[in-house]
Design goal:
alpha/beta; about 40% helix; 7-stranded parallel beta sheet; about 260 residues; 7 helices; single chain
């Protein structure tokens, strides 16, 4: 469909050296966009047993005939975020599409607190989860959103989680941070509406990625039987929705969260 054609667009996808972020980046590139690849380090994917790197994903994008570059930054550090956005704009000229994918619960990078609940979790772990999920999205939107507001054009796709829309007794801080992303999306969408900048959110349920395989509890059953909608989601399922939100197909949609479960 021509409305999914992103030729000439510049996209920045955070946390895109692996997992869902990599799929988002590749889908945008196949639709014609040049894509800036990001992660906290070039080898971040190795933590989850994935044999790719930030530079390798950029090479995948270039093999599709698009421009690409890998830029590293710690998005829990607001100072690094501002520098990172400036570097991306200086190198590519502007940003048309921002996909705020970087994030994850504390179990993805450190041992899970035991018990993992809102009362017994350490305060420093609360801060770490909020910084990794909510703060990074707000700061990325602040700097890239200002750039898009000035240009009076842009698409911001925030990545929340289905966990932010249900009651849960594990990963409570993570779920709260992701719920915050959905409400922040609603508010920012209204603020940027007069400037023709769309702000929407995808909230995936558990999706079969390297992180999913590396962090699930031993003995967890993965749904591979039953109807398609009863099975665990595949990365392509989520990437198709991100492509929709980044394309002109969603031009009259803003402030919305699409919960995928």
């Amino acid at each position: 469909m021509t409305d999914m054609n992103l030729t000439g667009k510049i996209a920045l996808v955070t946390g895109s050296s692996r997992g869902l972020g990599r799929y988002y980046a590749l889908y945008l590139a196949r639709a014609g966009a040049d894509v800036i690849i990001h992660d906290v380090s070039p080898t971040a994917a190795a933590q989850f047993g994935e044999a790719v790197s930030g530079e390798a994903v950029a090479d995948e994008i270039r093999a599709l005939g698009r421009r690409s570059a890998f830029l590293a930054a710690d998005l829990t550090n607001p100072v690094q975020i501002e520098t990172f956005v400036e570097q991306a704009i200086n190198q590519f000229g502007h940003i048309d599409i921002l996909v705020n994918n970087a994030g994850g619960d504390i179990g993805a990078s450190t041992p899970r607190p035991d018990p993992n609940n809102a009362i017994d979790i350490k305060v420093e772990d609360i801060q770490a989860v909020l910084n990794l999920n909510l703060l990074n999205v707000m700061c990325m939107c602040k700097y890239v959103g200002a750039h898009m507001r000035e240009r009076r054009s842009g698409k911001i796709v925030n990545v929340g989680s289905a966990a932010g829309h249900v009651a849960t007794t594990v990963g409570v801080i993570y779920a709260a941070a992701k719920a915050g992303i959905s409400h922040y999306t609603l508010c920012l969408g209204e603020q940027l509406r007069p400037y023709d900048v769309n702000v929407n959110c995808i909230a995936p349920a558990a999706t079969y990625t390297g992180r999913f395989r590396a962090t699930r509890v031993a003995g967890d059953q993965i749904k591979t039987e039953g109807s398609r909608l009863q099975q665990v989601a595949q990365p392509d399922d989520m990437a198709k929705i991100v492509l929709f939100l980044a394309s002109s197909q969603s031009d009259y949609l803003t402030g919305e969260t699409i919960v995928c479960h």
